[in-house]
Amino acid sequence: MAEERLPFTVRLVCNEEDLAKAVHIRHSAYARHVPAFADTLRFPEASDFEDGIAVLLAESKLDGSPLGTMRIQTNQFGPLSLEHSLTLPDSLQGLSLAEATRLGVTGTGVGRLVKTVLFKAFFLYCQQNGIDWMVVTGRAPVDRQYDSLLFKDVYPELGYIPLPHVGNLPHRIMSFEVATAQARWAAANHPLQNFIFHTRHPDIDLRVRAKAILPVHAGVRFAPPSTRHVM
After folding, report:
1. pTM for the complete prediction?
2. 199, 55, 66, 18: which is closest to 120 by C-alpha?
3. Which residues, listed in sequence order, are joined to residue 35 by a DSSP beta bridge?
4. What is the distance, to the nearest Å, from the Cα of residue 112 to the centroid of all Cα atoms in its chain?
5. H helices within the chain, ranges in order?
6. What is the distance between the alpha carbons of residues 226 and 202, in angstroms, rounded to a whole number?
7. Is the N end or the C end of the chain the one with fewer CB atoms within 10 Å?
8. What per-residue confidence (pLDDT) applies to 220?
9. Average pLDDT value for the chain
10. Half-sphere exposure of 208 toward its Cβ, with a 13 Å CA cutoff?
């Protein structure tokens, strides 16, 4: 397997400083596209501290500034966030699921690569934790990126569905089977198959470290990231 180094790292948030960086890039990214909803994301959310939650953080190797983030929730300890807005079909009941939410990346040129690497980290996390299906909610035009990754609509006949847990913004509910991913991408001759399946990225570190974060209420105010040059 080929090995490739990245200009940034992706790892699991494990303390307040990490989470402050993730919240900063999360708010900044949403502010560019949905500013009204972004106002609700200035501070950590209760979901950031729940069991079954992992928050990914992409950081620049140059100066430690935050470049991207994603929150992953499994259904090991309870229903997914989206299940508070709608019922998943029978085909996904009784299975191990993981939902990606609060995806945000820098608006600079490296943002596209960061987003791709965060998807790979999400996929690897699911593989390592025995997840059957990855689930996402995609608003336009973000949903087209999930189309390109071979996610499929859970409810194709419904199209875009307003979801209360994401500010009633219309989203498509989309899913991706983990076990068949490599075969499906190979059959489609997907342009990213070598990047995802045949390249090792040591800068993706999904090891779980002892968390210094203590459960707190939503709205807790952390100090802003200590980095001087936030991209």
Report:
1. 0.90
2. 199
3. none
4. 14
5. 16-33, 35-38, 111-128, 142-148, 181-187, 193-197
6. 25
7. N
8. 44
9. 90
10. 8
